[in-house]
Amino acid sequence: MNHELLRQRFNPDGSLLRRQQMRMLEILLEVDKICKKHNIRYWLSSGTLIGAMRHDGFIPWDDDLDIEMMRSDYLRLMKVLPTELPEWLALQNDETDPNYFYFYAKVRDRRSRMLEQNGYDRLWKEQGIYIDIFPMERHPIWMHKLTEKTVGHMYKIWRTSTDDEKAIRSVRRIFNFNNRFFFPCLRTILSQFTFGSKVITSGMGIPFHNPRYVEEIFPLTTHVFEGCQLPVPHDADAHLRHIFGDYMQLPDLDKLAPHVGKLEFSD
Q1: Could you read off the pLDDT of 135-179 as tens digits, one per residue?
Q2: b vs e for 182-200, b when ≥16 Cβ sit within 10 Å of the residue's Cβ?
């Protein structure tokens, strides 16, 4: 694998993608400082973790950045981020952005503007470059799939509606029912049965359900990512192979699909 050739092809220094990647890294390092200050554990995940292990940084063509943490840490982080993020960053969740309907958070850069291919972000207050922060929970995979079904209609409404105001009202009703009533009830019930479970997955309502294994994640260690030592699962290789198979094998480089449709920098 010739990393330099991949960099020259996809994200050479000065390219729009490389500028986006470096801005995402800036965001992550600010979040990392806050997490360290408050003893909040997180780890690089998904394609970001693949990038760390395979490229010691971003996958050359990657245009997003993901981190995960246990839900208890996530809830603590949501409380401190609004007051501790620098002015050029904004926390985006259902409490800070009235039209945002994901069950995970983003930290957004206010010095840029981007629109994604899926169009979900068209009415969100914050539209800058971001990183994703995913809460993780201990519950059965079948239960998680049930929560995906209870919110799946939101995405269809938002994607297909020609009346944005009507779509917002419909999506908000579904989101609030799940977030305020159904999911808390499920957590109360499941707390009686999942104590000590070694399997975790994405938080309820998040459309990803690959199982993670506690013994592969904790205790966390660090790995180099764009010249910085950042948290990764204890056995990142086994962790990634359970989710992605042979993650060291490059995909078909002629069939890559970007997330970003439009990107502008204001500084």
Answers
A1: 999 888 899 999 999 998 898 898 888 899 999 999 999 999 999
A2: bbeebeeebeeebeeeeeb
Q: What is the Cα–Cα distance from 42 to 50, expressed in whole angstroms?
A: 16
Instruction: Give 38-72 as a DSSP string.
Output: TT---EE-HHHHHHHHHHSS--TT----EEEEEHH
Q: Which residues of 11-38 are buried (b: 16+ CB within 10 A; e: fewer)?
A: beeeeebbbbbebbbbbbebbbebbeee
Whole-model pTM? 0.95
Task: Please answer whether residues 24 and 131 qualify as being in contact, where contact means their C-beta atoms are separated by less than 8 angstroms.
Answer: yes
pLDDT(194) > 70: no
- Give residue 32's pLDDT band: very low, low, confident or very high (50, 70, 90): very high
Q: Which of 230, 208, 189, 62 is nearest to 141 (CA)?
A: 208
State the Cα–Cα distance between residues 189 and 6, nearest whole angstrom. Answer: 49
The Cα 229–Cα 90 span in angstroms is 24
Rounded distance, CA 177 to CA 8, Å?
48
The bridge status of strand 112-116 relative to strand 260-265 is antiparallel
> DSSP for 171-219?
HHHHHHHIIIIIHHHHHHHHTTT-TT-SEEEEPTT-S----EEHHHHSS
Neighbours of 103 (CB within 10 A): 20
Contact 134, 45 (CB under 8 A): yes
| Residues whose CB is less than 8 angstroms from the CB of residue 127 and which lie 6 or more positions away in sequence, other chains included | 108, 113, 114, 115, 121
pLDDT per residue over 222-247, tens digit each? Answer: 999 999 999 999 999 999 999 999 99
